[in-house]
């Protein structure tokens, strides 16, 4: 008969036995039963090595490190439990260690894994109906945590056999682990409250501090949670106070109820950390690389630069608060490698949608697409930097009616060179250039630059020249980087590059990309719109372009130096309009400050021109622009630039804007005929414009650049004559409707 059978027979007859045995003898008997049974148990499973347990531990967060290996951002990815970092025993408050030992295992440092006195006392209580008493040591509890038994068992009590197995596992653990390793592992693996597991998560979340700073009161509450993780605030306060009295800290019980309730309110709070510099970047990295929970990911971010960018965004947006600007995003790229050196997705506390990543949100591009359009035109040899473009009123027929673009300042400059048109961001010359390139060809080029255009060129139409498409700051910044690298486009890198940059493809001819950079670095060429002294001007070489979308909803500034590309967006996450803010006054100052920080030594020089770029002295006839040296692709170089045709120097060529060719005019029969007039609108400057004359079907219809004509049904030919009476432009159009009433209108 086994010793368990003997013990069982005696226990079954404990009432009779009680009359014959003293309490002391009963305790000794029960202790002997348990002790003997523990030696009769099967061999315990080999204890895992301490190093193995620590190596396999995984926090519920991914930790991003900057390029120097310093913590940058934590991002939770495992929602099975809220676990922090594994903390060494030296990083845990001595007060917490003392409270846990006092509460859970007073003789921890003197036993070898099993507290036989505590087990005997527990068995005595069970045998004689005195209630259940805990007897598990820290080592026994740790063995359960390591085997996963605690989670599997849930609220059920252990059987006698399970208790014996736990004892053997604890003794095996003590044979291979030191006491310091046991208590360290226990504090890191034990559940404290709800989903909070381990001392690091407990301290960072519930008490909003590092575990090394836990005081006596906080430590007593933590120890009370170990015994009953889901107990009420009142029960926890009572147990914590009892523990404090045992430790001789009774004075800490004052207002303990209030302290406990206050602490428990942080159960779902954000973990307090000093390393929270790039939340939106972290989310992007996790989406791209899918690292496992607990991983430490080395990234390309420069933490010092990241801090400066955040500070700059906050400071500049506070200055713009009266202009109704609350959000901004910034991306800083290394030109050669494509590494992301700084990434700020929002203005944080100033933003009304701080969790929205504005660096990857789609916003209207505005004038930021113009450099790519002109680069394509130069590459195709349709334009040179010295080519003249007409900045005068323009009307283009579309399927939805007449498209009439306007410049930002509602003014016109007449004939200007492509250099002036791009650097000063004139709209109408850009639209005329898109007519030459075609919207479909331009849209295809933008796709090759990584811009997320989801419609065809015909869908966007001529407005694509002015940035009617939606793009993200991240993709747009990388597209600008292709201009900085003389036409080479490559993917972005969020980890430090190993073995050089990623493979790149040629999107623009190097000569065309270099000329665009030269134009965008020319402060004299942009003086018409921005002046000589603006945030776009730097004491070292940079090329820069601004943009503002319709109704001032989006504000852009993108540019590059010899080494870096910086992109800035400013606006409002809601899409609300800003007040009197353009790219140069909104995003521009942020861009300027970051470029100055990056080049504190002033070490940016213009890259040398690639082969295929020709430098030539150019003279503009009629004084259209001052003579200068300019750059050309191959055999497109010229020495003199003049307007073709019969117009005089200084005169802009006369062109009909309205009615555009093919226009259909519908008369309204309910409006008196003498109240219906057709607008005649032309573009041009100088003597020829002042003497312009209109003819409809060969008969005079008005003078000057603007007039009104009384229409009648039928197809008509309109002609625009110069001051010398010679034909300058013509168009055909049709008038429909109101046949009977319109018949009384004389053609004069």
From TrEMBL:
SUPFAM superfamilies: beta-lactamase/transpeptidase-like, Lysozyme-like. It is an enzyme of class 2 (transferase). One of its GO terms (biological process) is peptidoglycan biosynthetic process. It holds the Pfam family Transpeptidase. Keywords: Carboxypeptidase, Glycosyltransferase, Hydrolase, Multifunctional enzyme, Protease, Signal, Transferase. One of its GO terms (molecular function) is penicillin binding. InterPro entries: Beta-lactam/transpept-like, Glyco_trans_51, Glycosyltr_51/Transpeptidase, Lysozyme-like_dom_sf, PBP_1c, PBP_C, PBP_transglycosylase, PCN-bd_Tpept. The keyword Metal-binding does not apply. The keyword Cytoplasm does not apply. Pathway: Cell wall biogenesis; peptidoglycan biosynthesis. It catalyses: [GlcNAc-(1->4)-Mur2Ac(oyl-L-Ala-gamma-D-Glu-L-Lys-D-Ala-D-Ala)](n)-di-trans,octa-cis-undecaprenyl diphosphate + beta-D-GlcNAc-(1->4)-Mur2Ac(oyl-L-Ala-gamma-D-Glu-L-Lys-D-Ala-D-Ala)-di-trans,octa-cis-undecaprenyl diphosphate = [GlcNAc-(1->4)-Mur2Ac(oyl-L-Ala-gamma-D-Glu-L-Lys-D-Ala-D-Ala)](n+1)-di-trans,octa-cis-undecaprenyl diphosphate + di-trans,octa-cis-undecaprenyl diphosphate + H(+). In the C-terminal section; belongs to the transpeptidase family. NCBIfam families: PBP_1c. This is peptidoglycan glycosyltransferase. It comes from Eoetvoesiella caeni.
């Amino acid at each position: 008969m086994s010793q368990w059978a003997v013990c069982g027979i005696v226990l079954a007859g404990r009432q009779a036995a009680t009359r014959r045995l003293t309490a002391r003898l009963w305790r000794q008997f029960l202790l002997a039963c348990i002790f003997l049974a523990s030696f009769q148990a099967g061999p315990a499973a080999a204890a895992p090595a301490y190093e193995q347990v620590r190596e396999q531990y995984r926090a519920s967060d991914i930790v991003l490190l900057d390029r120097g290996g310093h913590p940058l951002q934590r991002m939770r990815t495992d929602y099975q439990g809220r676990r922090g970092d594994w903390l060494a025993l030296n990083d845990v408050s001595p007060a917490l260690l003392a409270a846990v030992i006092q509460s859970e295992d007073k003789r921890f440092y003197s036993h070898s894994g099993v507290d036989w006195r505590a087990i005997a006392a527990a068995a005595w209580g069970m045998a004689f109906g005195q209630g259940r008493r805990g007897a598990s040591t820290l080592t026994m509890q740790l063995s359960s945590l390591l085997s996963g038994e605690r989670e599997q068992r849930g609220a059920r009590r252990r059987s006698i056999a399970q208790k014996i197995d736990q004892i053997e596992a604890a003794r095996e653990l003590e044979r291979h682990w030191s006491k310091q390793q046991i208590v360290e592992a226990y504090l890191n693996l034990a559940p404290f409250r709800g989903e909070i597991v381990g001392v690091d998560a407990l301290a960072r979340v519930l008490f909003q501090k590092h575990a090394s700073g836990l005081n006596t009161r906080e430590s007593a509450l933590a120890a009370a949670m170990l015994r009953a993780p889901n107990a009420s605030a009142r029960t926890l306060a009572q147990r914590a106070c009892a523990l404090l009295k045992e430790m001789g800290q009774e004075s800490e019980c004052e207002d303990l109820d209030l302290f406990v309730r206050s602490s428990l309110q942080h159960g779902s709070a954000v973990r307090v950390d000093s390393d929270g510099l790039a939340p939106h970047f972290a989310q992007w990295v996790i989406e791209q690389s899918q690292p496992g929970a607990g991983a430490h990911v080395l990234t390309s971010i420069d933490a010092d630069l990241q801090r400066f960018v955040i500070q700059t965004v906050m400071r500049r947006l506070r200055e713009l608060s009266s202009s109704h600007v609350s959000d901004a995003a910034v991306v800083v790229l290394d030109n050669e490698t494509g590494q992301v050196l700084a990434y700020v997705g929002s203005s944080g506390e100033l933003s009304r949608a701080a969790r929205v990543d504005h660096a990857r949100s789609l916003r209207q591009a505005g004038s930021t697409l113009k450099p790519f359009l002109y680069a394509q035109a130069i590459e195709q040899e349709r334009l040179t930097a010295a080519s003249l473009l007409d900045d005068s009123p323009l009307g283009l027929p579309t399927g939805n009616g007449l498209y009439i673009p306007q410049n930002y300042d509602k003014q016109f400059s007449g004939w200007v060179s492509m250099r002036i048109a791009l650097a000063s961001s004139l709209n109408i010359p850009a639209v005329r250039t898109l007519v030459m390139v075609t919207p479909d060809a331009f849209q295809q080029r933008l796709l090759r630059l990584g811009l997320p255009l989801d419609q065809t060129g015909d869908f966007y139409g001529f407005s694509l020249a002015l940035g009617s498409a939606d793009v993200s700051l991240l993709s747009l910044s990388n597209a600008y980087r292709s201009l900085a690298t003389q036409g080479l486009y490559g993917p972005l890198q969020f980890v430090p590059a190993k073995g050089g940059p990623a493979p790149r493809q040629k999107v623009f001819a190097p000569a065309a990309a270099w000329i665009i950079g030269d134009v965008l670095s020319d402060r004299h060429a942009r003086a018409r719109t921005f002046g000589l002294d603006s945030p776009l001007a730097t004491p070292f070489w940079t090329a820069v372009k601004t943009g503002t979308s319709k109704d001032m909803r989006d504000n852009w500034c993108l540019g590059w130096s010899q080494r870096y590309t910086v992109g800035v967006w400013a606006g409002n996450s809601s899409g609300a309009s800003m007040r009197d803010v353009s790219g140069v006054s909104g995003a521009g100052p942020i861009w300027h400050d970051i470029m100055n920080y990056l080049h504190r030594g002033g070490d940016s020089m213009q890259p040398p021109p690639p082969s295929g770029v020709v430098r030539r002295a150019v003279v503009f006839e009629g004084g259209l622009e001052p003579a200068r040296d300019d750059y050309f692709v191959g055999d497109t170089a010229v020495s003199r630039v003049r307007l073709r045709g019969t117009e005089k120097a200084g005169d802009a060529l006369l062109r009909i804007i309205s009615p555009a060719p093919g226009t259909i005019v519908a008369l309204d029969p309910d409006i008196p005929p003498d109240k219906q007039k057709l607008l005649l609108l032309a573009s041009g400057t100088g003597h020829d414009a002042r003497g312009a004359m209109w003819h409809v079907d060969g008969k005079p219809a008005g003078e000057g650049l603007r007039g009104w004509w009384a229409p009648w049904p039928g197809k008509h030919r309109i002609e625009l004559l110069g001051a010398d009476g010679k034909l300058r432009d013509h168009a055909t159009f049709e008038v429909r409707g109101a046949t009977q009433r319109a018949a009384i209108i004389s053609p004069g």
